[in-house]
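Supplementary notes for students who missed Thursday's class. We covered one full example, reproduced here. Read the sequence, then the structure, then the short commentary at the end.
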Amino acid sequence: MSALFRAAATAAWLACSALAAQAQQCPPQVPVQGAPPPGPLPVFPPDNWWNTDISAAPVDPDSDSFIAFINNGGVRRLHPDFGGEVKPGSVAIYGFPYAVVDGTQPKKKVKFRYWDESDGVDHVTGKSLPFYPLPDEAITEPHWVEGGAPANVDQRRKNDRHLLVIDCTSKHLYELYNVYYNPTTGKWFGGSGAFFDMTRNDRRTEGWTSADAAGLAIFPGLVRYDEAWNDLVTDIGHALRVTVRATNGHVYPASHTAGSTPGALPMGARLRLKTSVNGEDPATRTSDPHARKIFRAMQRYGLIVADNGSDLYISGTFDLRWNNDLLNPAFATLMASDFEVVQRGWKP
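Structure (token representation):
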């Protein structure tokens, strides 16, 4: 066997091994809604801002005033903004659904309102490109798009209508905001769209939005059932996405501003659950080990302000296995005063 032939055979074997490794990261059947994402977990590199340990990060000098703003003269408590169906068998759902596809999924064009800050667009002409691997199932089947209704139902004026898609072959993440599929023209529409390579720490262009107001990826900040309720996963390993009613500017790692309310936190700000409040660890207020695991993530990785919405609503996935009769009272044991604001724009 010649050296050239051996080299070619070795290269072919390595390529096949790489493809086999990628294939093992994909579910047996795709497209599928809500399957565990490709490993290793957490998604994105270990030093990504979502996965950074902030337990020793400095407290912002204006932390108390920010917390007071959130409380708004009362007491703001945490709320899990995720769950299953609004009613058993209903189209309407709680939380973010997401689709998992593989590298064979055809790419579709999407016409965006904010095309100049979206990916998959020729930024000279504004022309949409075949870029987003959107599954046809999302067009007609419920529970693939945020809110629950299929994409061919136009609910853009009353719902954010996010559509999140993971390509498990390449570990690519595609996120769209305010989507609609027009069955008459056979075309996809959206407010904005963003692409993320989950093997890299690429940040959005400064000033750009994503599918989220802060310009961040949504998926890596979601509470997921496959992490929280899997006893083999001892540490969720990433920060959680949180909304507040108003924001003021943005700081790292966010790239986009969507508010200028005096006294409010900026997009990208981090909240951290204290380890002691009046001599008590607030994470122990719930006896459920899975809810407590979520609270431990709030202490170690924190919450990242990603959008305007209801105060202290924690984002998670749509999953029929969530038990909101357990989650709602557990989250309600935590209030704004149990948190502190990490120094704005802090980097490790």
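Commentary. The CA atoms of residues 245 and 309 lie 5 Å apart. The first strand starts at residue 32 and ends at 33. If anything here is unclear, bring it to office hours.
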